[in-house]
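Read as chain and fold; for instance:
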Amino acid sequence: MSTFGMLLRFARQVVLNVMSQLTQQVNVIEEQAMNPMRQMIQAVVNGVWIGEGANAFVEEVSTLFIPGIGRVAETINIVNNNISNAIDILEQADQQVTALVNGLGDLFGGIY
């Protein structure tokens, strides 16, 4: 394996760790922000808070906050997938270059 290949493998592990941490943070957001907000909405809908303010709260949380957090989570997942695909492409390119260089080495080794 080439030095570049070893560096790619190391970088991949680092990036995978970062991606894992991002995914964990999305889960934390879900558990510590989204779920309590959904419970608050349900409590308001069940009559804990009544009036225009209550209706506005439910509307804003339902149409802005929750979808916004969902978009953040979706974006993080897309970024994770794109980074993973990019690393795969780099590794494939490294393997192809290594094969070409080894082939040239064999060719020149046969000549000299």
In short: Residues 3-111 form a domain with the Helix Hairpins fold (CATH 1.10.287). The radius of gyration is 25 Å.
